[in-house]
Amino acid sequence: MTDDEVDFPPGDGPTSGISVTLTAGTLQAIRERVGKRGVSAYLEKAAQRQIERDNLDELIADFDKVHGPADPEAVAAKRARLTGGASNAGSAA
Predict the structure, then answer these.
(1) Which of 3, 18, 45, 81 has the smallest set of CB atoms within 10 Å of its CB?
(2) Is pTM beyond 0.85 here?
């Protein structure tokens, strides 16, 4: 059985080299943060975070299909409670 036939969760399994094309400015910003030898690890973590965000977006969309969209005033009140700020009911969630 090859690695292509095994399902690994994000961040798990053997490493595999690929070619990635980035704009010069993006690559420069990454290298300024992590150096030349840290680019792959930085991109791995960035990809993992994006997968987590995509999965969360899918969960929210599924929830909205079943229960309807969240009440903006309730979201603002909970956000204010969590952040210690004033409730801003008119802002979008």
Answers:
(1) 18
(2) no
Residue 39 φ then ψ, to 5°: -65, -45
Q: What single DSSP character describes residue 11?
A: T
Mean pLDDT of the chain: 90
Task: Please state, in angstroms and rounded to a whole number, the distance separating the CA atoms of residues 90 and 24.
Answer: 39
User: How long a stretch of residues is the chain?
Assistant: 93
CB 31 within 8 A of CB 23: no
- The contacts of residue 43 (CB under 8 Å, 6+ apart) are 20, 30
CA-to-CA distance for 44 and 48, rounded, in angstroms? 6
Please state, in angstroms and rounded to a whole number, the distance separating the CA atoms of residues 90 and 65. 23
Tell me 91's DSSP state: S
